[in-house]
From TrEMBL:
Residues 4-120 form the Gfo/Idh/MocA-like oxidoreductase N-terminal domain. Gene3D superfamilies: Dihydrodipicolinate Reductase, domain 2, NAD(P)-binding Rossmann-like Domain. Residues 132-248 form the GFO/IDH/MocA-like oxidoreductase domain. This is Oxidoreductase domain protein. It comes from Thermobaculum terrenum (strain ATCC BAA-798 / CCMEE 7001 / YNP1).
Amino acid sequence: MTVRAAIVGTGGIAHSHMRALGRLRDRVEVVALVDTDPSRLEAFGNEFGIRRRYPSIEQMLQAESPDLVHICTPPWTHTELVVRSLEAGAWVLCEKPLCGSLADFDRISAAEESSGKYCSTVFQWRFGTAAQQVRRAINSCELGRPLVAVCNTTWYRDQGYYSVPWRGKWATELGGVTVGHGIHLMDLLLWLMGEWQEVTAVADTLDRQIEVDDVSMAIVRFEGGALGSIANSVLSPRQESYLRLDLQGATLEVRALYGYSRDNWSFTPAPERDAPNPLDYPAEQDVPSSHEAQIAALLDSMERGERPLVSGREARRIIEFMSALYKSAATRQPVARGAIVEGDPFYHHLAGKVG
């Protein structure tokens, strides 16, 4: 069966979705586009040869009844668009951040439950072969216990980057570097290291003329006892995404920017151990991290009628973690997992904002 997909929002990130869907055209067909900007909608539709175009998601959902909706719009619009798509009977793949609060996430979860459909959020770093092999090795304990982690998203965005009207504002971007940039590597860290227990953080605006944070740093304690450090920055001229995991038996590292293949990873066994290398697999089996890899896995889940990987509890984890990071930064106190509940300002907004 060919999945009928629609793309909502035809800005920059939609091109990544469209190229990935094009490579999966034996499994999925893009049947419709939605955008409130007529000229952008026309240009995107002409570029990719998609004829059915709509100015609103309501018109598209009613006319097309797609199986899958890709949400590629600015962050503040995500929750409403996801809920409407689920209620119309479609599965959803939504760009990050999925939403701006635990309250919004729980609203999405309620829409999933009532519709029987699922919403997954884009975290393509989970879907490369290397990361999946590393997770398997950690979960099997063949490399011993995780002990120390370093997670650095040190990127550079100049002031001009924030000239786009919705960027740099709590109401529309929903957060700063923590939400818009560091979220990918932090999600991979939490996925590989297991449940986090407590976070102590700082977040600040050091140089860019924006409302939101341009730097955040955190120390995280994991349930298994491991400790991790996190640095997120858009002020770093030498850009890098760097994740280091020190286990009893080995160190695993990845150095990349927006994605990786196995060549970006390294393995260093502990001197006194004969640790198996999870990266030792045939080159032809290596799948780089990408939108295509995540969409292919989502299509597999649709065929089986089962919850996709980055949804439900797996997707809620990073929203709760970012909420706790911002709360810790605001209160100058550690925040435990599970401490932010309904009634807490940080349950209703990532940064505890009112209004």
